[in-house]
Amino acid sequence: MAIHMGKPTATVQGTGREEPPDTGAGGAGDRHKLTALQGLAALSLDAMASVAYGPESIVLVLAAAGAYGLGFTLPVTLAIAALLAVLVASYRQVIAAFPDGGGSYAVAKRHLGRRTSLVAAASLILDYVLNVAVSVTAGVAALTSAFPGLHGERVWICLAVLVLVTAVNLRGIVDSAKAFLLPTALFVGSILTMITVGLFRDGPVSTGSATGHASALGGGATTVGVLLLLKAFAAGCSALTGVEAVANAVPSFRAPAARRAQRTEVALGALLGVMLIGLSILIGRFHLQPVEGVTVLAQLADASFGHNAAFYVVQFATMVLLALAANTSFGGLPVLMSLLARDNHLPHFFALKADRQVHRHGVIWLALVSAVLLVFSGGDTNTLVPLFAIGVFVGFTICQIGMVLHWRGERPKGWPGKAALNGFGALLTGVAAVVVTATKFTEGAWLIVLALPLIVLGFGRVNRAYAAIGQRLELGRIPQPPHRARSLVVVPVSGLSKLTCQALTAARSLGDEVHAVTVTHPAPEDRETAEALRRDWELWKPGVELTELASDTRSLGRPLSGYVRELALTHPDAQVTVLIPETEPAHLWQRMLQNQRGSVVAHAMRRDTNAVICRLRFRITDGAR
Q1: DSSP classification of residue 3
Q2: 155 HSE (CA, 13 A, CB side)
Q3: Is there a contact between 320 and 190 (Cβ–Cβ < 8 Å)?
Q4: What is the pLDDT of residue 8?
Q5: Are 10 and 18 within 8 A, CB to CB?
Q6: Number of C-alpha atoms within 13 angstroms, CB side, residue 456?
Q7: pLDDT, tens digit, for every residue of 581-604?
Q8: How far is CA 313 from CA 182, 189, 207, 298, 302, in A?
């Protein structure tokens, strides 16, 4: 029986877990975690920014059927909004059932097995990495459209934006949320204002932005096929990327984390749904037609506000948010990678946290891979878009199927309706995944189809390596009682100094027997140094014999490691320790002045022996001159 003492706890519905109540103060680490509002700024930028290209993706597909096809923009958007509602409701339950984060990975791990969970994790990793590259290139594309002279420098601008976002995230997810809160508010406010103003217009105020640009409208048509509608639906579903980010990063929220994350998920779904539907209504109201070189969002701003300052505010807010939408990946992927590392599918250092609750290794890894993609694509959004959004649909589908099994197993009140909702969502996202993959396969989507199983195989390889290490270490078993072995300590010596004295003092404290060892070379100047050391050693009489190792070459590590191996063979029951004395200057730049003998010896010992390596640091302070 567990006895709870101190502050009362609150149970999060559907989890069986208890969390401390929201007192407003929070723990010592809560200042480095998110509130619900900060969660919107840190984890929703990807989804929010997708309204800039989601409706346009629908329009461009339907434009193939001419003006008649564009009439289906609102019905397709309503279908996407319905799917969005299903996903938000589902991920709200995922947050409650899996408050440790991980989203579709955590759901699949519990209900669909290890292999399926790794497929979900691989799909999320691909989506997060591509989101960074696509978001940054899209934002920079908006900038270079306004200032064509910068087009040739777009790769460097992309890398600069990536460095900025990475630097902010290395300071902590709360700092990134605070930094990006204003751009998020400006974008959402400008889009909602544009929709509101546009709804009161009888017609477009201005069409100047589209004047002089070639129309992308196809020939006239009287019927629209199912395949075209499916392609438009799948293309528009790119607006749903980022919906899962909140569920993946629940541990990043302040207590009660699950409740705050649920509020953020609902707020994200509501804002995204309103904006998508509102923009689609305006597209039909203004009879907008896609043109080459001008975005649909720019035409809508022109039609609602006119070609004035408000028009440029919308463009500027869109450009900034597109560039910063990469922040969603920096908030969600490091948490997912930490869970994978905890389950032995990624190197364990991905699970480490810095003082500001930052998974720095995950942040840096994401930045490096994204930088490679940016350079590979030449900063061109069109090169990356065909690869985008496939992985997220795979994750959506796996998560929905897992939640159906979750409801069947838990059987709470009203579970058939919840299971049916998730099953319907799985069907929709599964169809979207198949259609997107099929339609974009020859455009580069085959790379994702190839990369997904390779990443899963990589997870398996890492897991097997950890399993082998664990077996060798006999993890999970009670080891034999520790016993005391005879201790031999080897101290490499190059000359007499206070450092040598401290090293021998430490060695005599650690071991039963101490061996001082120096390496000599046959060159005349080296013979003089060796004779001087031998003479001084006899005068000093430290009580430890000095052993000279002759070396025909300038090698230092191999003669010492050979001596240690021979010592271990002649004393099989003894524990051999190599104590390496080193100086540590007061200033970082002064370390470049050292000869690095200690690092050379330590490397040789790790490579060639099983000895314990102990590095004795002698600190040189400014006062000791």
Answers
A1: -
A2: 9
A3: no
A4: 35
A5: yes
A6: 17
A7: 888 777 776 666 666 788 888 888
A8: 13, 11, 17, 11, 11
Cβ atoms of 590 and 582 within 8 Å: the answer is: no
Q: Give the whole-angstrom CA distance, residue 327 versus residue 334.
A: 11
**3-state SS, one letter per residue, for 278-322:** HHHHHHHHCCCCCECCECHHHHHHHHHHCCCHHHHHHHHHHHHHH
Residue 158, beta-bridge partner list: none
Between the CA of residue 276 and those of 162, 282, 421, 580, what are the distances in Å? Answer: 27, 10, 22, 65
Ranges of H-type helices in 378-410:
381-384, 390-410
454 or 620: whose pLDDT is higher? 454
Contacts of 409 by beta carbon, 8 Å cutoff, 6+ apart:
111
Helices (H) and strands (E) in the chain, counts: 24, 7
Residues recorded for the chain = 625
Question: 45 with 320: CB under 8 angstroms?
Answer: no
| Residues of the chain above pLDDT 70, percent | 85
Tokens of 129: 């990495």
Q: Are 546 and 518 in contact (CB under 8 A)?
A: yes
pLDDT one-digit tens code per residue, 289-322 = 777 767 788 888 888 888 788 888 887 888 788 7
- Answer for the pair 200, 282: CB distance below 8 angstroms, yes or no: no
pLDDT (tens digit per residue) in 473-483? 777 788 788 87
CB atoms within 10 A of CB 2: 4
Token representation of residue 512: 């039963």
For 518-546, write each residue's pLDDT tens digit: 988 877 777 888 888 888 898 898 888 89
List all residues 6 or more positions away from 12 whose beta carbon is below 8 Å from its beta carbon. Answer: 18, 19, 96, 99, 256, 258, 259
Split at pLDDT 50, 70, 90, the class of 21 is very low
Q: State the Cα–Cα distance between residues 337 and 474, nearest whole angstrom.
A: 26
In this model, does residue 457 exceed pLDDT 90? yes
User: Residue 207's closest CA among 293, 89, 125, 286?
Assistant: 286
Q: Binning pLDDT at 50, 70 and 90, where does residue 368 land?
A: very high
| Whole-number Cα distances in Å, 407 to 251, 367, 396, 415, 438 | 23, 38, 17, 6, 32
Coil vs helix vs strand at 546: strand
Greatest extent of the chain over all pairs of C-alpha atoms, in Å? 107
List the beta bridge partners of residue 549: 519
Q: How far apart, in whole angstroms, are the C-alpha atoms of residue 131 and residue 125?
A: 10
Q: Give 452-507 as a DSSP string.
A: HHHHHHHHHHHHHHHHHHHHHHTTTSPPPPP---EEEEEEE-SS-SHHHHHHHHHH
Beta-carbon contacts of residue 26 (< 8 Å; ≥ 6 apart) = 33, 254, 255
Q: Give 355's DSSP letter.
A: T
Question: How much is the pLDDT for 4?
Answer: 36
Cβ–Cβ < 8 Å for 262, 111:
no
Amino acid letter, 478: I
- The better pLDDT of the pair 623, 163 is held by 163
What stretch of H or E contains 373? helix 360-377
Are 381 and 124 contacting, i.e. CB atoms less than 8 angstroms apart? no
Reply yes or no on whether the pLDDT at 415 is more than 50: yes
